[in-house]
Amino acid sequence: MRRYEPLIGAILAGLRLPCGCERSDIAQEARIGLVRAIWAWRPERGPFGPFASRCARAQAINAIDTAGARKHQLLNRAVSLHSIIVRSRRPSDIGETAFESPLHERLSETRPLADPVRTVLAREQIDEIRTALAALTGKERAALTGHLNGVCQQLLASELGSTEKAVHRSLRRARDKLGTREERLAA
């Protein structure tokens, strides 16, 4: 293991770690990949060095992807605040859809029996979401809105006159900005 520790350092140097990911945790995952490479290596298949490098890097990338997936679970399940589609329950309207008012407008409506503490907390959350969304660029906002509404990146790219990779990068930046803001608010 000591002999291949420089390999672990080289793998970590080539990876971009997202916020909240500890370098030591990813190094440990790469070491696990190295141990698995030791178990799986067969001399007749080729030299150990490149095989170990590939296994350790794959394990580290898998750990980063797993950490990133957990980090953005709330964002991935989010629904657009601008419009929510509601299916009509009347038999005459089967198949038709109606647009309900945006969430922030519904919260601002006065209800005589509403709990004032819940109303204040909900308004504060909406204000923080608005502030966070204001920090996004136009492309980031468009990519995030399209993603949250279930539009594939290929279609978003054609609608925005861009490439899929550019849409993917815009979406990643938007998630990073909103995730960073969420972490600061939690602290």
What is the structure about, briefly put?
The longest helix is centred in the N-terminal third of the chain and has 24 residues, at 48-71.
Query: What strand line-up does the widest sheet have?
Result: 1-2
Percent range for helical residues?
Answer: 55-70%
Question: Could you tell me the strand content as a percent range?
Answer: under 5%
- The shape is elongated
- Give the count of helical stretches: 9
Average pLDDT: 75
Computed over alpha carbons, the radius of gyration is 23 Å
Order of helices and strands: HHHHEEHHHHH
Strand tally: 2
SS class: mainly alpha
Separation of termini? 38 Å
Main sheet specs: 2 strands, antiparallel
Poorly predicted runs are: 83-99
Descriptive key words:
2 strands; 187 residues; two-stranded antiparallel sheet; mainly alpha
Describe what you observe in this structure.
This protein is mostly helical. The protein has helices at about 5-15, 25-40, 50-70, 75, 105-110, 115-135, 140-150, 155-160, 165-185, and strands at about 85, 95-100. Helix 1 crosses helix 3 and helix 8 crosses helix 9 (about 165-185). The longest helix has 24 residues, at about 50-70.
